[in-house]
Write a structure and sequence with these properties.
Helix 2 packs antiparallel against helix 8. The chain is an alpha+beta fold. It contains 16 helices and 7 strands. It folds into 2 domains: 184 residues, Beta-Lactamase; 199 residues, Hypothetical protein af1432, CATH 1.10.3210. The protein binds ligand C2E, succinic acid (SIN) (3 copies) and fe (iii) ion (FE) (2 copies). The site of one succinic acid has 11 residues, from helix 6 and helix 7.
Length: 404
C-alpha cells in the first residue's frame, strides 16, 4: 500500500500511540483504540475480534447509533460470538489472509468472492451495516492478534459513505500499533489471572468466572454511579482502566488463610470467622509496597470490600496493615469507605448469593434482588444500589457471558 498521508494524520497517529502506551487494562485498551480509529475514519461503529483458541472471538464494540442512547447499549459489549478463521466471513477472510478489505456495502457483496456478510447482529439490533473497513491486527513479528472493523463511514452531513483510501492507510497503521499493545495487555491479564488461580487452588469453589464477573459488574456499576455524579467521561475511563483488575483481586488475601477454614463445608465458628476476616488485611499487604494508582486501588479494595455502609462491617480502621497485632475494630462508615470498595462490596455479594459455595446453595434471582433492596443503606451504599438496579440489564448480560 502506498503511503501518502496528510501530515495531520501522521501527527494524530503519533499522539494515539502515546495514549495507547498509558493504558493497562485490556478492555480499556480496546475501548481507546476503537474510539481513536473511529474518530480518525469517521465511523459510526466499530468492533474488535481477538484470536482465541484458533478462532476469532468477539471482544469489543462501539456503536454511536445503538449505544449513544444511555446505558442499555452497554449490554452489546458482553455478547458471546465466535467466528472461524476461514474465507467464509469478512472478518475470517481478513484474518486468514492478513489482508485488509474495504467494502462499499455489506449487503451488496458480489458473488465472485468467497466471503459473505453475516447479518445476524444487524437483525438482532435493528442496525443497517453499509460500508465496512476491516483490518488485520498483526504484530511486528507478523503474528495475528485479531481483526479491527470500522462500520459506516459518515460524511460531514451524517450520511453514510464509503471509507476512503486515507482511512484505509490510517487504519492499517493503527491496527498494527494496537496489535503490539494488545499483546502486552493480554500478558498482564494472564499474569493476574494466574495469581488468582493460585488463590483458587486453595479455594476450589471460586472459579475464574467469579472474578471476571465481579470485575465487569464493578466497572459497569461505577460507570452508572459516576454519571449520576456528573464525573467526566475521561475520568470515568481512567478509573475503569484500574478498577476492573483490582476488583478482580479483592479476595487475593485468601491465599494466606488456612485450607481448613477456606475449604470448610459447613458454617464457620466465630473463631474461624475472626481469622477469615484477616483476608482483607492480608490482601492489603500484598499491594502495599508500591505507590502506583493501580496498587493503591488494589490495596484499598482488598482492605475495604467487607466494610458496610452503616458501620457494621470489617476490618475497620487499621493504622498499619503490616503490624503484628492487628485488632479488627469498629467498621468504617458511609463515605469513609472508598467508592471502589463500596462498589465491589455489592458486586461481590451479588455474585456470592447468585452462585453456590462450599457452604451454601445459590439463591433465586428474585430473593437476591429483595435482599439487596433490604440492605440498601445498611450493608450497601444506597446510591450504589440505585446504580446497580438502573443497569440491571447489563448485569444480566455479564452473568450470561461469564457463566460457570
Ligand atoms: P464469599 O463466599 O465470597 O462471600 C462474600 C460475601 O457475600 C460474604 O461476606 C457475605 O457478605 C455475602 N454472603 C455470602 N453468602 C451469604 C449468605 O448465605 N447469606 C448472606 N446474607 N450473605 C452471604 P462475609 O460474610 O464477610 O464472608 C467473607 C468470606 O468468608 C466468604 O466469601 C467466604 O469465603 C467465607 N465464609 C463466610 N461464611 C462462611 C461459612 O459459613 N462457611 C465457610 N466455609 N466460609 C464462609
Ligand atoms: C467487556 O468486558 O467486554 C468490556 C467492558 C467495558 O470496558 O465497558
Ligand atoms: C481471589 O481473588 O483471590 C480468588 C477468587 C476469590 O476467592 O474470590
Ligand atoms: C471518583 O470520583 O471517580 C472515585 C475516585 C476514587 O474512588 O478514588
Ligand atoms: Fe472477601
Ligand atoms: Fe469474592
Amino acid at each position: 500500500m502506498e503511503l501518502r498521508l496528510r501530515k495531520n494524520n501522521i501527527i494524530d497517529i503519533l499522539k494515539i500511540n502515546e495514549k495507547i502506551s498509558q493504558v493497562r487494562d485490556l478492555y480499556s485498551l480496546l475501548d481507546l483504540v476503537l474510539l481513536e480509529a473511529r474518530t480518525i475514519t469517521g465511523a459510526d461503529a466499530g468492533s474488535i475480534y481477538l484470536v482465541r483458541k484458533n478462532k476469532l472471538s468477539f471482544e469489543y464494540v462501539q456503536n454511536d447509533s445503538l449505544m449513544g442512547k444511555g446505558m442499555k447499549g452497554q449490554k452489546y459489549l458482553y455478547q458471546k460470538q465466535e467466528i472461524e478463521i476461514d474465507n467464509t466471513s469478512v472478518a475470517g477472510f481478513v484474518a486468514l489472509n492478513k489482508k485488509q478489505l474495504n467494502i462499499r456495502d455489506a449487503y451488496k457483496i458480489k458473488g465472485d468472492v468467497p466471503y459473505s456478510f453475516n447479518r445476524s447482529f444487524d437483525e438482532a439490533a435493528s442496525y443497517r451495516t453499509s460500508s465496512i473497513l476491516t483490518s488485520p491486527m498483526v504484530t511486528i513479528e507478523n503474528q495475528l492478534v485479531g481483526v479491527m472493523q470500522m462500520i459506516n463511514a459518515k460524511n460531514g452531513r451524517g450520511k453514510v459513505v464509503s471509507f476512503s483510501r486515507d482511512d484505509a492507510i490510517v487504519l492499517s497503521l493503527l491496527a498494527n500499533q494496537a496489535a503490539s499493545a494488545i499483546e502486552k495487555a493480554k500478558m498482564t491479564r494472564e499474569i493476574i489471572l494466574r495469581m488468582i488461580r493460585i488463590a483458587e487452588l486453595k479455594d476450589p469453589e471460586e472459579t475464574g468466572t467469579h472474578v471476571n464477573r465481579v470485575g465487569a459488574y464493578a466497572i459497569e456499576i461505577y460507570r452508572q454511579w459516576a454519571r449520576k455524579q456528573d464525573i467526566k467521561e475521561e475520568k470515568i475511563k481512567r478509573m475503569q482502566d484500574v478498577l476492573r483488575m483490582t476488583a478482580m483481586l479483592h479476595d487475593a488475601g485468601k491465599v494466606a488463610i488456612s485450607d481448613a477454614i477456606l475449604k470448610k463445608q459447613g458454617s464457620l465458628d466465630s473463631l474461624e470467622f475472626e481469622h477469615m476476616k484477616m483476608h482483607t488485611v492480608f490482601g492489603a499487604r500484598l499491594f502495599k509496597d508500591s505507590n502506583t494508582d493501580w496498587d493503591k486501588m488494589a490495596a484499598e479494595i482488598a482492605l475495604n470490600h467487607h466494610e458496610k455502609w452503616d458501620g457494621s462491617g470489617y476490618p475497620g480502621h487499621i493504622e498499619d496493615v503490616n503490624a503484628h497485632n492487628i485488632k479488627i475494630g469498629e467498621g468504617k462508615q458511609g463515605e469513609e469507605i472508598p467508592i471502589s470498595a463500596r462498589i465491589v462490596a455489592l458486586a461481590d455479594v451479588y455474585d456470592a448469593l447468585t452462585s453456590s459455595r462450599s457452604y451454601k446453595d445459590s439463591w433465586p434471582e428474585a430473593k437476591v434482588l429483595d435482599y439487596i433492596e433490604q440492605e440498601k443503606g445498611k450493608h450497601f451504599d444506597p446510591v450504589v444500589v440505585e446504580s446497580f438496579m438502573e443497569i440491571y440489564e447489563v448485569i444480566q448480560a455479564i452473568r450470561e457471558k461469564y457463566k460457570n
